[in-house]
Amino acid sequence: MTDITVVGAGGEYMESVVVVSWHKKPGDSVTAGELVVTVETAKAATEIEAPTSGILTEIRAQIGEEVAIGTVLGTIRDGTAESAPAAKANTPVATAPTAPAAPSALPVASPVAASGPARITASPLARRIAARRGIDLSAIAPSSPSGRIKLRDVDAFTHAHPAPAAAPVRAAAPTSTASGVNLTRRGSGTGTPFVFLHGFGADGFSWQPLVATLGADHAAVLVDLPGHGRSPADAGAGSFEDLAAVVAQALAEAGIEECHLVGHSLGGGVAIALAETGRVNVRSLTLIAPAGLGPEIDGDFLDGFCRATQAESLKPWLMRLFSDTSIVSLGYVQATLKARGDDLRQAQAVLAGRLFPNGTQAGEMRAALRRVAVPQKIIWGEGDRIIPMRHALGAGPEAAIHLLPNVGHMPHVEAPATVARLILQNARCAG
After folding, report:
1. Predicted local distance difference test score (pLDDT) of residue 45
2. Which CATH topology does 2-79 take?
3. Secondary structure string (H, E, C) spanning the chain
4. Is the pLDDT of residue 356 over 80?
5. Cα separations (Å) of 188 from 112, 128, 384?
6. 416 Cβ partners below 8 Å, 6+ apart?
7. Highest mean pLDDT among 94-108, 137-151, 389-403
8. Rounded Cα distance, 12 and 331, in Å
9. Which of the four CATH numbers 3.30.1050.10, 3.40.50.1820, 3.30.1320.10, 3.40.50.1000 does domain 183-429 have?
10. Where is the Peripheral subunit-binding (PSBD) domain (predicted)?
11. Mean of the pLDDT values across residues 365-370?
12. 2-79 and 183-429 share one fold
């Protein structure tokens, strides 16, 4: 027997996927490399091919079911269709499930047309949170033009239809603050949250490998910086301090008064500026290949990344980010292209011109970092080709420096277990 598994999707780093459709049924012959099942993540649908030729003997994950990365979706055995036993009577075929009934306190969806129920498209996180709150997804109107239900839609529904006092629903803060900055909450921990600020051209999802390693016991807030992700494209920012002011306002609107702050690259420079303002009580500060500690930066990468509009032109620049370039699969490149679009790409080009004119870091954050009196760690990949590792030496005497061999500009992706351990060590130093 050979298992059909999902080990990654669209180049993304996700904890789970949702099964969208099966293209074969139990008893069918399959050929190695033939499409057998499609799954979706928060960003894209991914087609999974048969790992070997044989007979699809069992489907373990049904359409609409959310499964963890690494889960066995089905099994294939050697043989031909003529010799295959009949499929088990109780093996479900690929039909869309009927949505669960909504609780009496919540609106019930309109009756479905006689032709059968339509498949509800929702991100894995939205499905998980809706199930936790007892909300029927069919009662939620998606805000996305694609018709995909996202966490922000679940949050909006929760606020608009609170549960009765006898059975209160604890609603999470909205994913989009009044200022427009997108915040994504992860984990069920109730302690001081970890706030993550991503690097240039990325978004909150870039932290997925690290957040998955930290585990659900730690509360995390993933910030989409202005000009990135689902935050407003027109940032209007010209400095790390400008971006920090916007983030501080967003955190205040979300009721986040203190945090353990983690910043990568561009987000590292913003994290230093945010910690210095005192507008948020930063308990610990962890910087991953941060900007702002020296003038050099790979200007060719910034220009090439901002110009690229096709997978072929974007892939070589993304490969500069990693020591292990096999990470940059076609799916990874396509997901990056899809996530930013022309509006964000143009906004990021403007932002790069302001913060890194002529391939030079205009922001100087070394003095500011020395004024931040909290536990500090700086993590850098020895193979970083975007910002020189030697910039860590300008951090000052209070920062513990950790240099990771065989790692590039993205330690939180290439070495998430090590980075997670260092972040938690730093947080414990804060008491």
Report:
1. 62
2. OB fold (Dihydrolipoamide Acetyltransferase, E2P) (2.40.50)
3. CEEEECCCECCECCCEEEEEEECCCCCCEECCCCEEEEEECCCCEEEEECCCCEEEEEECCCCCCEEECCCEEEEEECCCHHHCCCCCCCCCCCCCCCCCCCCCCCCCCCCCCCCCCCCCCECHHHHHHHHHHCCCHHHCCCCCCCCCECHHHHHHHHHHCCCCCCCCCCCCCCCECCCCCEEEEECCCCCCCEEEECCCCCCHHHHHHHHHHHCCCCCEEEECCCCCCCCCCCCCCCCHHHHHHHHHHHHHHCCCCEEEEEEECHHHHHHHHHHHHCCCEEEEEEEECCCCCCCECCHHHHHHHHHCCCHHHHHHHHHCCCCCHHHCCHHHHHHHHHHHHHHHHHHHHHHHHHHCHHHECCCCCHHHHHCCCCCEEEEEECCCCCCCHHHHHHCCCCEEEEEECCCCCCHHHHCHHHHHHHHHHHHHHCC
4. yes
5. 35, 12, 33
6. 209, 210, 212, 213
7. 389-403
8. 8
9. 3.40.50.1820
10. 121-158
11. 96
12. no
Tokens 């990874």, residue?
332
State the amino acid at position 376 in one-letter form.
Answer: Q
